[in-house]
Amino acid sequence: MGSSKIVARFDLWYHPAMAERFAAEPGLELLTLPLAGEDPLAQLSRAHAYQISSAKDELPRRWFADAALLRDCPRLLCVSTNGAGYDTVDVPACTGAGVLVVNQAGANAQAVAEHTLGLMLGLTKRIVETDRLLRSGRVASREDLMGQELAGRVLGLVGIGHIGRRVAGIAAAFGMTVLATDPNLPPGEIRRRGAEPVAFDALLARADVVSLHCPRGPSTLGLMDGAAFARMRPGALFVSTARGGIHDEAALESALRSGHLGGAGLDVWEVEPPPADHPLLGLRNVVATFHTAGVTGEARRNMALSAAGQVIAALRGDRPPHMVNPEAWPAFLERRARILGA
After folding, report:
1. How far is CA 67 from the centre of its chain?
2. What is the pTM assigned to this prediction?
3. Which of 2, 141, 232, 263 keeps 20 to 30 A from 64, CA to CA?
4. Which of 153, 233, 291, 335 is the catalytic position?
5. Is 272 among the catalytic positions?
């Protein structure tokens, strides 16, 4: 298959729908490369598209799509992430090399939105705490585990994209008032997505629950630091299903231990999974998962089909719907014509 369009991925878990979709495309070859054992660079360097994990702690840094890898893979035209995030991709380096980057924005949005509400319910109804105490035989009375209702509470969303807008809809059904801040959207669009537009500081001051749904990047790294947690309402809850590094874990621990915050629901960590002795895992008012919010059968299938469809479209010369660097499109087309002879 010397004239095939070649897609490479490492042997991490992917929904079988991806391979099935690629297999149905004439003239396309899928290479699944081993992370362990023989150096896979010789095979990866043949690829026209690289299907890459979005999880920074799942993939060795040697195989991140950065400038060094691009130099080793001169035929590479497209990098497709396996989720909405692209922590494993140096987007400016790809743009400079004429390599198109696509992500699967929205493909797991329903799963993550449901998980977000699950963390909120786990905290307010003290579900995890009750389960632990019940199994240990240390429950004295039901009133010792008295929780709260979400109805009538104020939810503050930091970001109201594919996931945030779904969280807003579910929260409204619970009887919550929803606020949102999003620098990428005008106030009218935020209202259309089901939230009252407010500034970041106003959101922190008013919300009973602050939930992060923004991407990780230079403008959001460390966004939730000690000062931000201090501006939140006493007893408020903090939830994140976004990305590790957006909140300062040490500052969050301090805010929880001091009693200023009432609890935290965390799906994302600076290191994933977090070590068993992580200080936040020792707090009874922390409900913890590790980047599993979007890991459902439905979401993984959606992402697999979205990724395969976008790679196939790009290699055909058709514009895929979720380009992270659309400014690279003209250079990508020129390189595609030269490399594929199309």
Report:
1. 23
2. 0.88
3. 2
4. 291
5. yes
